[in-house]
Amino acid sequence: MNIKIYSKLWKLIPIVVISFSSCTDFLSVTPDNRTEVEGYYTTAQRVDQAVVGTYVDLRRALLSNYSWLMYGEARAADVTVNVDFQPYVAAQRLKVDHYELKQLTDWGYFYDVINSANEVLDIVNTAEPEVLSEYQRTLYRGEALALKSMAYFYLTRIWGDIPSGEASDMGQPLTAAAAVDRAAAYAKEAKDLLPWVLLNDDGIESAALTAVRFNKTAASLLLAQEELWANKGSEALTTLQALFADEASLSGFGLSLGIDRRTEIPETPLSGTMVSMPLDRLNSLYPEGDTRRASLFTVSASQGTATLIVKDQSKLDLLKLGELNLLLAEAYWRSGQLEEAIQYLVTAAEGATEDYTTLSDGTFADALLLERQRLLVGTGQRFFDLVRFGKVSTFVPEFSETDVQNGAAYWPLSESSISGHSLTQSSYWANQQ
Amino acid sequence: METIIQRTCFLLVVLLLPMLAFAQKAHTGKVTDQDGEILIGATVGVKGTDRFTVTDINGKYTLSLKVGETIICSYIGYHTKEVAYRQASDLAIQLESSVEELESAIVIGYGTQIREEVTGSISEIKMDKLTETQVADSFESLLQGKVAGMNIQLNSGEPGSKPTIIIRGLAAVSRGDASAVSEPLYVVDGVPIISRTADEFSITSTNVLADLNPSDIEDVVVLKDASAAAIYGSRAANGVILITTKKGRRGKPQISFNARLGINYVPQLQDVAGGAKEREQVARLYASYAPYGVTMPAMYTDANNPFYNNSSDWQGYLYNTSVTQDYSGSIRGAGDFGQYSISMGHMDNKGILFNTGFKRYSTMASTSFNALKNTLVIDNTLAVSRTDQTRNPDGLSTNYSTLLPLPNQEIVKGAEVYGLGKSSNLNDRIRFSSNATLNFIKNLTYKASLSLEYTRSMQDSYSASRRTLRATNSSGTSESRNLLFQNTLNYAPKFGDGHSLSFLLGQSAEKIETKITSVSSVSASPTLSETVNWPTGNAIGSSNYTGSSILSYFSRLDYSYKQKYMIGGSLRADGSSKFGQANRWGIFPSVSVGWNFDKEGIFEDVEWLESGKIRASYGVSGTTWNNDYLALGIMDGGSLDNYNSNLEISYGGISGYSPSWYDGFKNENLTWVKSQMSNVGMDVSLFGNKVEFIFDAYEKLTKGLLLTTSLPTTSGYNEVYRNAANVLNRGLEFTVNTNINAGTNFNWNTGLNFALNRNRVVALPDGNADIIKTSTSGQDFGSIVRTGTPLNGFFFYESQGIYQTESEIPVNPKTGASLLGLQNKILAVGDRNFKDQNGDYIIDVDDRIYAGDPNPKWTGGWTNDFRYKNFGLNIISTFVVGRKIVNTALLDRLQFGKDFAGTGSMPNFDNYSIWEKSGDVAKYPTLNPWNDASQIVSYDSEYVEDGSYFKVKAATLSYNLNSKMLNRLGIGRARVYCTFDNIVTFQKYSGPDAELVTIDGFDASGGYPMRRMMLFGVSLGL
């Protein structure tokens, strides 16, 4: 009898041992209440969330601390933003030990956009066929590329030489020219992929959605800006002329605002008297008789300021359709067709007191710069225009031409931005306190 | 050890002999030991019959016997003896002690080993002696000063708080949490138990191990080096503590009862300037520093104010003598059927601070059954316990201004003057384990063991505001389950001429899950209900779950030749769900050798050398971390970035999702923290075991401690966890034990141990950059982790005294500007003169230096045990030498802000050297409360003090009742004792107790002082 029991036990032991130890699954613990990255993007809605997340990153990059203005008009002292660090920015004291200023010298948020866009591209490329329709696949790819292009374009305009955020050459330095080329290549691809008008969840064309997401027009405008930055006038012209195609349905692009959980981005960044212009500056910029000043600014004579009018507080315009004529004018001018250029400038500058019909090749640039300053106020492009037209030392009294050559026109870099690659602080900012 | 007891002792008769039909006659005999001492209570029986008896107080017994029958006699601690009865004169029985044999076996990982053959660094503590006459919340504090190289520090005197145990040096690094500790693994009766809960999942702060009743513990074995601990693989790098609980022994049932009552006395408290002195000090600060137009609060100036003449002793009111009670009882026994052990315990430790205390209820039942002619042994253990820690909900303040009236004064009678509410912290634990051990053939044993452990912590806290009558309720539960299945196969043959082999092969699978749920609410009508309900929407609830599993295979081979030469090795492979697929398994090997040189021919004639052994070992063991999902890449919708800004998750009416990680960027390469440890040691026993000397030297390199490292911003992420930091610990350990007998009446035992440990950071990530410890909220801990220096060094400003004249304040020759103090303070005479290390004429973080090492260099303990006749005196002391600490508790009280008057008590300025006028040689700078920058800076090298101490921890006077009295009372054994606990501490430190500091050397400010206790007890055995 004992032998029987033994033999039973003998059989039992290996079974028990094997049943407990041979389960390879034993070491794979799947958290019940958390989401792992693998297997999350299994529906179109979730992929859409990731795309939207990239816009959110861009919004954070451009809106926190009014950075789109700080990098643009506020730095050029055109407008005043009612925050305590604005005077430092206007005085070009960008390395002052101030929390928000330090944050402005950190390019991390722009790289978040690039990283998120690359994530989206990965997700779209690896998504199962049944997850995304062909429309969604092309749209999301196009949006990701356009967002990435915009982030690179901002980065190089703000800091000049920048490191790559692509997996293939992560952290490798890109010259300013190479960065713009890269941005243009992404925008070009995006332009071809994006539709004129986006469809909403019900499959109906939605103008509201199109206005806050990248579309073919917006990608084209972005591409034209980049090509003009690289002084490729004729290519820009080709890009812009494509917008006159028969099937074209034009729409600009702006960042959707709305409720934001973060404290540093107010619910409506352009509300109240946040963004204003001193009255004397307004008067010199838009002389009496310029019909546009009433539509752009509310003048308060008693306080001596003019407040920027925001027509749509739910949206911050980044690529305005109104810029199209200015871009065309510049593209014609840069490709040597002054007559057409003047024609488009005159159209764009309707309401101006100046007579632009008599412009020469030599005076065109100043006129164009002035009209861009007037028309694009509030979109954050002014300082970039000064850089592009080589006028920084002319308009910014703090900088000499040598300073500009030493990198003064670009922003200094925060410590965390400098670490992890071979780029260094420009000699101008390295010598500033 | 149990098996040895079982084999050596036989109580009941199992075999029948042919009966002879002779008449029986009562015979009387006597049982003695080898020295002729009588043995009381020895069992004497006739083999093959149910006739047996027990010897009386004279060692005599009476039995009916027939010639030819076999008398069988057994007694605990002695070899069982069988005597054939031939004639009446033959009835004296002499038993031989088996104590040597009992003591020769020691518990090691997954088995036992003969002491002489041990090649690792192992210390054993018999708990009986400690637990019988001392009372403690947890067994850990009783081990203080007992093991060389095991430093146990009580960081707080609060009942139920957790001591810090560090074996062979700290090996934990963190950026934020300043108190990262390298904790050992706790194994109870072969089962690793839940000894702590991850911070995210812990809800009570009670010591998790306090639910083990120390009286249930038979012995504690500390595995210190890698060769001993590596068999526990991935969790053994910080040492392993093996706990063996008490079991029944053969003989008559052992019934014991121990009752004690302790009186807790309030120790020295913070010094307070009372009444008139406080008024005078406030007036002094106002007179010297108050800006124009600022006048003293009326409370201090208006002599008609009813509070004016108060001198309330808040500490005296809130700290009071309290009582500790502890009862434990047990019934244990054993026989051929197996063994049984049932015990119960209750402790009620009232804290000296108002409304605090700790209670423990514990019960444990353990049984073993022998079956199939002892080839199958089944053990079952069930332990159930509850601890209940009472605390004050919002940290009761004991330092109100002495002018405020005490709550018992007539003028405020009925009003609650201090925080209302309560906080209950319950910890429950149920531990069930079941083993089946099968002896197939000789020397081959198979053991399967299943263990289930369940812990639950519950916190219910309720605090009300006197002003608004609003109350906060919170309630939380955290539950952990640990399921463990172990299989081991042991083959231990002896062959040839003195060859012995022991081979172990094992497997274990363990799954640990934890769940937490907590809710809180704020209610406007607190008196109506203390339950959490959500009437106002002002409520927050949360829940969380975590789980991990470990799968292990392990093996050990030990070989010994004539117990002279030993060699051993172990290998463990651990797989853990915490790591990525690629790095899921860790291999932990160890090797060791030993040589009992006393057995060599040349030492044969050396009379004084009892035994001598040299041993050496090397091994690798590991540790992991608490966060189960670090390598998995858990996604999170709204994490914080380095500018503390949340990601916005909605855009244009659509919810967005920017991929981010819950706990840093995912890293599939995360793997074990590995410790490489080498150890050489020597054990020598001299003069007939009267003097024992143990020496160990070790080096422990802990590699791959987990730290976050920053990622380049171009990656789009901020940080990632990596196995990044390395820490080296080196040390020496000495133990000397003596046992001196002067005649039969006097006996003196001493145990002295001391250990030197030096600790050094070897490598850090990010190009070995210093880690200046700061919390996530930016709070600076004043500690630094820097390569080449000990862990958690003080990172302070270097003091050069106090500015006595204006001309001493440096002026920048280039700009003409004076040196700018901390927080942009305009420096003046009387301010602290900090050294401007980098010469930029601004004192800021860059001017801090490494100002001292808070890690103890020498630690140890000294125990003296005197016995004279029936009296015993036992004195336990512990010491720490060569550590730096800072009295932050005092500094906090000297940091006065603008609103200092009336808000709190003040230290008596006369006791401190505070600068008042030029020429004063003072320790503390001028105390100007109106300056925007604090005058007293905690991170000031001036305040680094020597933290060495020598503490007489406990002294016990005991008396064993003599057998005459016992006999009259009908009791087998009785002892009465009186223990003084926390008697005296010799220290240079300016604070109350140099032991009650955090591991990084700061006085746990406003901490709970350690009570002194006088304990009276009686311990009975039936």
Automatic annotation (TrEMBL), chain A:
The keyword Secreted does not apply. The keyword Transferase does not apply. This is SusD-like starch-binding protein associating with outer membrane. Belongs to the SusD family. Residues 25-223 form the SusD-like N-terminal domain. SUPFAM superfamilies: TPR-like. InterPro entries: SusD-like_N, SusD_RagB_dom, TPR-like_helical_dom_sf. It comes from Dyadobacter jejuensis. Keywords: Cell outer membrane, Membrane, Signal. GO terms for cellular component: cell outer membrane. It is found in: Cell outer membrane. Pfam families: SusD-like_3 (PF14322), SusD_RagB (PF07980). Residues 318-392 form the RagB/SusD domain.
TrEMBL record, chain B:
InterPro entries: Beta-barrel_TonB_sf (IPR036942), CarboxyPept-like_regulatory (IPR008969), Plug_dom (IPR012910), Plug_dom_sf (IPR037066), TonB-dep_OMP_SusC/RagA (IPR023996), TonB-dep_OMP_SusC/RagA_CS (IPR023997), TonB-dep_rcpt-like (IPR039426). Pfam families: CarbopepD_reg_2, Plug. It is a multi-pass membrane protein. Keywords: Cell outer membrane, Membrane, Signal, Transmembrane, Transmembrane beta strand, Transport. It is found in: Cell outer membrane. Residues 1-23 form the signal peptide. SUPFAM superfamilies: Carboxypeptidase regulatory domain-like (SSF49464), Porins (SSF56935). It comes from the Bacteria. One of its GO terms (cellular component) is cell outer membrane. The keyword RNA-binding does not apply. The keyword Acetylation does not apply. Residues 116-240 form the TonB-dependent receptor plug domain. Belongs to the TonB-dependent receptor family. This is TonB-linked SusC/RagA family outer membrane protein. It comes from Dyadobacter jejuensis.
